[in-house]
Amino acid sequence: MTSHKLNTFLEKNLTELKENGLYNEIDTLEGPNGSEITINGQTLINMSSNNYLGFANDTRLKEKANAATDKFGVGAGAVRTINGTQSIHDELEAKIADFKQTEAAVAFQSGFNCNMGAISAVMNKKDAILSDELNHASIIDGCRLSGAKVIRVKHQDMDDLRAKAKETIESGQYDKVMYITDGVFSMDGDVANLPDIVKIAEEFDLITYVDDAHGSGVMGKGAGTVKHYGLQDKIDFQMGTLSKAVGVVGGYVAGTQNLIDWLKVRARPFLFSTSLTPGAAAACIEAIDIMSASTEEHDRLWENGHYLKEGLNKLGFNIGNSETPITPCIIGDEKLTQLFSKRLTEEGVYAKSIVFPTVPKSTGRVRNMPSAAHTKEQLDQVLATYKKVGNELNVI
Ligand SMILES: *Cc1c(COP(=O)(O)O)cnc(C)c1O
């Protein structure tokens, strides 16, 4: 017998989501997540992955992953602090620190648990965190978990940040105060104004934490948004993922040796969850080596991003204010957004709809993620399909 209360709860809420067009159906890929994907036997141009540089299925990374698996095994066998630290993990962390130009770095099993662990390792209930209102869910959860007072700051509003920083500091109620922001905002593609953030942080002695999940590999010739602005010495936490442009899985914080030493004794996912697999660590190292040696993939990513944006803009779509390859097509109504995405799929283009609660109500969008792996022919086909479906559904 299963719980009657639980079953009633699930039935009611699932029905409600489906009726409101807010229920997300999961599509299963029958092969790698490349510029083309196969779902239910149908081959589609893929405009929805975070695989910015095409590394997720890159032969060079796969070879390194296989070699490391042969040498170190499929699993690390323990958490990092027992005996799950293998030389490949140390090598990865040294590589990240070098790439980010910081004293040290610590790797986690995912970006999500990195935020859960790193924020709460440093902040506690005597502290306050100023947080951009559009920050990623993992930041929101990490802040909550820390027990610190969370103060939402209007999106990219430096006057609001300054006013709230001043008020928070002058209240004398808090021990430490942090400002936390995405480096690149994943739903809109805008870039955090780090130069002004650093000025405000210096004025009020704020701890700065930049989640560069969508900036790493994309901004700063690959090294991220902090590097893009040349602020490596001014940002306390350079957090990022190994799951997006790097193409594998994992998360990290790069910073001072003291910060990393502390995270390695206090960040709970580091202490209580088994390390990254050796194969994943080796593939990440290879990705960073490739990015350090050449900007070929990075340059192609940006070229493709510009090409797609220009094309959609000319067709009359609202593509928002993205400053990066992330290209949202803002449609508004949730049901229409989902229908739009469904029609694109039927026509051979996989571009996922993103609706409330991932983005605010009535800002439903189809989000396009061009990558270095896309060809011009694929992007032209995407544009032709958008034109057809846009006309059909009276969006343009
Ligand atoms: C994707 C993302 C994460 C989570 O990273 P994973 O490695 O996928 O767990 C964290 N923060 C931001 C801003 C993200 O976009």
UniProtKB/TrEMBL annotation:
Cofactor(s) the record lists: pyridoxal 5'-phosphate
Domain Aminotransferase class I/classII large: 44-383
Enzyme class, spelled out: transferase
Origin superkingdom: Bacteria
GO MF annotation: an example: ligase activity
Membrane-spanning residues: none
Enzyme Commission code(s) on record: 2.3.1.29
Keywords per UniProt: Acyltransferase, Ligase, Pyridoxal phosphate, Transferase
InterPro entries, A to Z: Aminotrans_II_pyridoxalP_BS (IPR001917), Aminotransferase_I/II_large (IPR004839), AON_synthase_class-II (IPR050087), AONS_Archaea/Firmicutes (IPR010962), PyrdxlP-dep_Trfase (IPR015424), PyrdxlP-dep_Trfase_major (IPR015421), PyrdxlP-dep_Trfase_small (IPR015422)
Pfam entry (one): Aminotran_1_2
NCBIfam families: gly_Cac_T_rel (TIGR01825), PRK06939.1 (NF005394)
Entry similarity comment: Belongs to the class-II pyridoxal-phosphate-dependent aminotransferase family.
Known partners and oligomeric status: Homodimer.
Protein name as it appears in the record: 2-amino-3-ketobutyrate CoA ligase
Gene source species: Marinilactibacillus psychrotolerans
